[in-house]
Amino acid sequence: MKPMPTEREYENRIEQFDREDLISLWERVHQKDRLEDWDPGKAFEYLVLRAFELEGATVSWPFSVRWPFSGSVIEQIDGAIFADGLSCLVESKDREEPLSFEPIAKMRNQLLRRPASAVGLVVSSGGFTAPARLVAHFLAPQTVLLWDGEEIDYCLRRSYFRQGLREKYQHAVEQGLPDYNVIERTIQ
Fold first, then answer.
1. What is the pTM of this model?
2. What sign does the CA torsion over 49, 164, 167, 108 have?
3. Dihedral sign of CA atoms 56, 62, 65, 66 in order
4. Contact at 8 Å (CB) between 14 and 49?
5. What SS3 state is found at 40?
6. First to last CA, the chain
7. What is the CATH number of domain 7-187?
8. What residue ranges in the chain does DSSP mark as E strands?
9. Domain extents for the chain?
10. Average pLDDT of 68-92?
């Protein structure tokens, strides 16, 4: 059995992808094709970050946070995005079924350890359950913006990730709601 790539090997691989390559990868992820040489969920995780990077955002690839006193890992972060004055932690979940509230609560706890201006992005290929959306509405002062698979497809095909992030953030600031949909221009 061939060992799976390291995080650095994933970074090197995805950095070779252009927009068309990402669209092809997204179609395979979305169809739930078995992806050789990708651990489950990794292709989606790296795809989201690379899409932002192609639009000029600075990204930090997935990383671990270690407790300074013992060196033990206390957090696994799926990545970070820095664009247009926003600093965002990312949690990506590639699931067929809608995502429950646990990853949103996890993101909230991660944001509690960060500067108050940090924003969380929870990206779910399968969307979100109604309870997950409800929980996201009550996380203030932390901001966690929700992205579903349809929005990923839309933004990927239109190079709209940074603009979509600005719209989602603006709506969260103005309306206090985290689940603005960049396709429908409405709240889910």
1. 0.95
2. negative
3. negative
4. yes
5. coil
6. 43
7. 3.40.1350.10
8. 58-60, 63-66, 73-77, 80-83, 86-93, 119-124, 143-148, 180-181, 186-187
9. 7-187
10. 95
**Strands laid side by side in the 119-124 sheet:** 58-60, 80-83, 86-93, 119-124, 143-148
CB atoms within 10 A of CB 164: 22
Query: What's the token pair of residue 15?
Result: 């950095």
171, 152, 158, 177: which is closest to 95 by C-alpha?
152
d(CA 165, CA 117): 15
Token pair 């671990």 is at which residue? Answer: 64
Query: CA-CA distance, 22 to 86, in Å (whole number)?
Result: 23
23-55 pLDDT, tens digit per residue, is 999 999 998 888 888 999 999 999 999 999 999
